[in-house]
Structures are given as C-alpha cells and as structure tokens.
Amino acid sequence: MFCKNHDEVVCATCVAINHRTCQDIHPIPDEVDNLYKQSASDQTKKQLLAAKKDVEDTKKAKQQILSELKKQKQKATDSITNYRKELEAELKKLETESIKEVDAQLNSMERNLKREIIESEQHINDLEKSAAALQKSNGNKAQEFVCIKTAQKIIVTDKSSTSSTKIQTELKIGFSDTIKIRNYLKQLKTLGQVSTAKATYKSRRTAYKVKEHRNINIRLKEDKYTCRIYGFCFTEAGSFLLADFDNNKLKHLDVSTDTITDHLVLEEGPIAVCLTSKQEAAVSLNNSTIQFVSLGDKMATTKKLKMDHFCFGLAFNDGKMFISDQQKTVYIHDLSGTMLHKITHETSGKQIFSTTRHISEYKQRLCVCS
Predict the structure, then answer these.
(1) Are 70 and 63 in contact (CB under 8 A)?
(2) Residue 19 sits in the same domain as residue 128
(3) Fewer CB near the last or first residue (10 Å), C or N of the chain?
(4) Are 339 and 333 a contacting pair, CB within 8 Å?
(5) Cα atoms in the Cβ-side hemisphere of radius 13 Å centred on 101
(6) C-alpha closest to that of 328 among 350, 304, 308, 354
(7) Which residues pair with 317 in a beta bridge?
(8) Contacts of 87 (CB under 8 A, 6+ apart)
(9) Which residues on neighbouring strands pair with residue 333, listed in sequence order?
C-alpha cells in the first residue's frame, strides 16, 4: 500500500502500527495507474543520476584530499628530518667549540709544565755539580766550607721550586655538561608541533599585500654586465635559483644571509629555471636548449636537450616539461626530450595565446603569461 499522507510505501503491519490515523492510503495494485506517472519516473531517474554524480564528485574530492594529505605528510616528514639535521649540525658545532676549549686549556697548562720541567732539569744539574764539588773538596776545610755554603743556597732554591711544582701537579681538566639542555630535551615529546586543519579553498577576491621587501646585491666580482634576471625558482631548502641572462650564469642565492653561495657558468643566457626533483633543476637557454643542473654542494651541468623550437618559459609537473616558445605555442615534452603534445588552440579552433612567455605551476594547474 501507499500512504499519500506520508508519501511512503507501507505494508499492512505498518498501516496498523504507524498509519492508523492516515486517511489517504491506497492499495498499490488496484490504483497503480493513478499513483504512477511516467514523468515522475523520468524525474526520479534524473534525480538518481544527479545524486550519483554528487556522490562521485564528493568521492573524487575526498580522494584528492587524501592524495594531498599524503604529499603533505611526506613534506612534514622531510621537514622533521631536516630540522633534526640542523639540530645535529648545531650540536656538532657546540661539540667542536667545547673540544677547542679543552685543547686550549691543555696547551696552556702544557706550556707551563714544560717550562717547569726544564727548570727542574736545571736544578738537578746544579745539585749534581754541587755534590761533586763537595766530594772533591774533602780534606780541604776552606774549600769544603765554600762548597757547603753554595750547596745550601742551591738547596733552598730547589725547595722553593719543588713546592711550586707540587701545586701544579694537582691541576686537572674536566668537563661538566649543561644540564639545562639535557633536561629540556627530556621534557619534549616531539621536535615541534604537528598541526592539522580543515581548509576550505575559496577564490581570493582581494589583492595580496607585500609583507616585506629588501635590496639584495647579486652581482659577482667577475660579472661583466649588469645582472638581468629573467627567471627564478625556489629550491627544496627555501633558497633561490636565479637565471642571470646577461652574464650566462645560474646563481644560488641564500635568502637567510642575502649572499650568492654558488654559481654556474652556462653556454648561453638562461631564461627560465624550475625544479625537476629535490636535487635537479632544468634551465631554458637562449639557443633552444634545456640544460639540466645537479644541485649538490656545488652546482654542475648534466645532460642537455636540443629542441626544435625556441625555449622561453619553463615549468615541470607530473614528469613532464611545459615549454613556451615566446610565440603562440606551449610544448609538452618528457624528460628525454620527446614531444608529447603542443597547445595552440581551444577545442573550438580558437587560438589561445597571442604570445607565450613565462609559465608557472600552482596546485597542479599551469598559468601562462601571454
């Protein structure tokens, strides 16, 4: 049966228990033609499909969040490891300075003790000479008198030196640790605070505000020309890679000290630079070349790819390089240089770009400055 009062399919038991007061109850087999409309069926199907799509979209969104969380977990883990390494470096520095202080104390005491040892050797020599002279003067009272007086004077001097030496032999070198450091570390459960937050991303409707700006001199002594930076990118450690076009150099800038810590001379002027991994960057050069650079303690060139088109803007995402030609096209290549696709027109056939220049990647979306 069907209860129109509650818009609900019911059985005889339900009617007896929950629908006793309902007046609009109909047996479905007898009145199905009145109750069932094809339009209602079609509408319900559409609603089911719409509901299914909503659930599928929610599922995809949750999967995307889960995937992003895993990436953030890896970044957090890397940050913890890097922080631990920084702490180890600081402890190593403190250890080195402590050992230097111990060495300095030892060197000071060693110098004093060696000087006193030489003085003791001189006293021993004087005492031996005095004893020999006294032995030799035996039988000659006048000579023996002179030797005795001389020996007594030497003995007095030796006693004074010996008492001083006894004090020196009581010196010690020791180390007492700073107990505050040990106690503080014991109180900690983690190296820092692990935070979680439910973020809701909305389109930004206000302009960004500049938090800070400062002038940094990035010119090197050997630079022949004024620095012209066409492109730059962050490294995993938070420093900058700068593409100095006019001086044909890739420069590594430490923003914590505002200094160029390393540089690499390239065969042509670099235009854009992006990371392809934690320890590798790719640089677009003015001769239609992509130059790969290893980012170890010292930057070094590795492989390079000669392209069939000009290389201006450069970005890397999901194992692919996106390269603009400063004309009307964005090319997609794999890391071996094979062209996978090129972007010029919309599906409607309309040309997308008037000119393609810089490319940036944000939240797995590419932005092309044209």
Answers:
(1) no
(2) no
(3) C
(4) yes
(5) 10
(6) 354
(7) 320
(8) 191
(9) 321, 339
Using an 8 Å Cβ cutoff, are 249 and 270 in contact? Answer: yes
- Classify residue 183: in a domain, yes or no: no
One pLDDT digit (tens) per residue for the chain, 370 residues: 888 888 888 898 888 888 888 888 888 887 776 666 654 667 777 788 888 888 888 898 888 888 888 888 898 888 888 888 888 888 898 889 888 988 988 888 888 888 888 888 888 888 888 788 877 877 787 887 887 888 778 777 766 666 655 555 567 777 777 778 777 777 777 877 777 766 555 556 677 888 888 888 999 999 999 999 999 999 988 889 999 999 999 999 998 888 999 999 999 999 999 999 989 999 999 999 999 999 988 999 999 999 999 999 999 988 899 999 988 899 999 999 999 999 898 877 888 888 888 988 765 667 777 6
Q: Of 55, 77, 99, which residue sits at a domain end?
A: 77
CA distance 234 to 255: 10
Rounded Cα gap, residues 150 and 254, in angstroms: 74
Residues 249 and 340 in one domain: yes
Q: Is residue 124 within 8 Å of residue 162, measured between CB atoms?
A: no
Domain span at 164 = 83-168
Count: domains in the chain: 3
Q: Are 40 and 127 in a shared domain? A: no
Q: Which residues pair with 243 in a beta bridge?
A: 231, 250
Domain boundary among 46, 77, 108: 77
Reading across the β-sheet that carries 289-295, which strands appear in turn?
270-277, 280-285, 289-295, 299-306
189 lies in some domain? no
Whole-number Cα distances in Å, 30 to 1, 2, 8, 204, 338: 10, 11, 17, 59, 70
Dump the DSSP string for 145-173: HHHHHHHHHHHHHHHHHHHHHHHHTT---
Instruction: Report yes or no on 217 lying in a domain.
Output: no
Q: Are residues 307 and 343 in the same domain?
A: yes
Dig out the tokens for 240 from the structure.
Answer: 């900058």
CA 167, 170, 175, 180 dihedral sign is negative
Tokens representing 155 are 């003995």
